[in-house]
Each structure stands twice: as C-alpha cells, then as structure tokens.
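Pipeline run #58 for the internal structure catalog. This entry was flagged by the ingest filter as a single-chain record with no existing model, so it goes straight to prediction. Upstream metadata was stripped on purpose; only the residue string is passed forward. Reviewer on rotation: M.T. Logging verbosity set to normal.
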Amino acid sequence: MSAPVTLGTAAVEAVEPPAARPPQTLAEAAKQFEALMIAQLLKEARGDEDGWLGSGEDAGSATQAGLAEEQFAQALAQNGGLGLSAQIVSSLSARAK
C-alpha cells in the first residue's frame, strides 16, 4: 500500500499514521471512534466562521487548529477520553457472549 520514499541514496518506507491503519481489536476500533467523536465536538466548539472562540483566524490557523484538535482527540481517547470506548467494548462484548 505504501511505496518506498527515496531520500538521497537511502530508501525509506512511508509510514501510515496510526488512524489510517485498520484497527486490530474491538478496543482499538472503539478508541478510534471515540477520537473521531471528540474531534468533531472540538471542531464544532471552534466553529467555522469566526475561528476559535471568535478570534478571526485565517485559513492557515484554522488548519493548524484542526490538526491540533485531531491530535488532542486521539490523545484523550487513548487515555480514557469520555468513557465512550469503554462503554462500546463492554456492550459489544456482552452481546458476543
């Protein structure tokens, strides 16, 4: 899926970001889903029209804020987040039994 990237004389394999690879377990899938939900909440809190809390950001700042929100959401989800991933794992595990 990823092609080697040539840097000078050395070839380096392109590395996919963690969110781009498919989840291997239910817990991973639940955490990725929770990260997406948190990122969406943060995006809505920032708003598209006036920037973060009405600061009037430009396009570059909006992109930077979006990337920061995604990273923050992933970090939150990996460390318990809102508890949504634990609920999903618990619910689906109970149904599987």
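catalog note: The chain has a mean pLDDT of 77.
catalog note: Residues 22-96 form one domain.
status: ready for reviewer M.T.
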